[in-house]
# Entry
Amino acid sequence: MIEKINQTAEYIKAKITEIPQIAIILGTGLGALVDHIEDKQYIPYTDIPNFPISTVEGHSGNLIFGQLGSKRVMAMQGRFHYYEGYDMKQVTFPIRVMKALGIQTLFVSNAAGGMNPSFKIGDIMLITDHINLFPEHPLRGKNYNELGDRFPDMSEAYSHKLIKTALEIANEKGIRVVQGVYVGTQGPTFETPAEYRYFHRIGGDAVGMSTVPEVIVARHSGMNVFAVSVITDLGVEGIIEQVSHEEVQKAAQQAQPRMMEIMRELVNRFNV
Ligand code: HPA
# Structure
């Protein structure tokens, strides 16, 4: 595994001019942040040794290196979902590569179903914590001490400092944001009403099919994490309606400009 990570990192290093400070995983319908990255360099996943290939509609599959505001960034256009059939080592491989490149901070976005009754479709939820309900753990198996601890602490999986700054930005810009706990499940089915109710009762505010494995590996690697969900549908008792991938994409599109403003400004204000 270590050899593969280093091989991939070396391949990327040979192609880029500057090591990015921040990596950003662009979730469903949030790809337009790419338009704000200047001086862009694309590396298709298909060209990268050891990289899995993205299969789901709406994800194109490139690493993008460039300048976002005042920072060098690396963006993942398309991520690897567990439901696509990848194992957890594949899902989280890009995070290992980020760390091997020297990147210390990870920003993540995703689409999620809201379960907190105060949430509205199109809301931006700053993830304050998560509940891992995936059936496989990304750290199961041999632990490589050079990558991280056997038993990693998860008491502050999502950087309090970054959340605080994001709240300040949203406040200054008059953008409504909510905060909450993200429940990570394998999908690909959306939840039954009973499942939404259950996830809410155990402490979840939103549910989605990504992010948790990536965040676990980022924390194992000692990276700081900031993550946001766009609430694309509601799994709130009494008002549950049918959900489709198209609706999720549409709601994510609508939230995109607000989300982008927060992300851009957070990148700008970020200092190592
Ligand atoms: N459930 C799970 N994943 C999702 C949802 C949902 O309601 N909405 C967007 N991604």
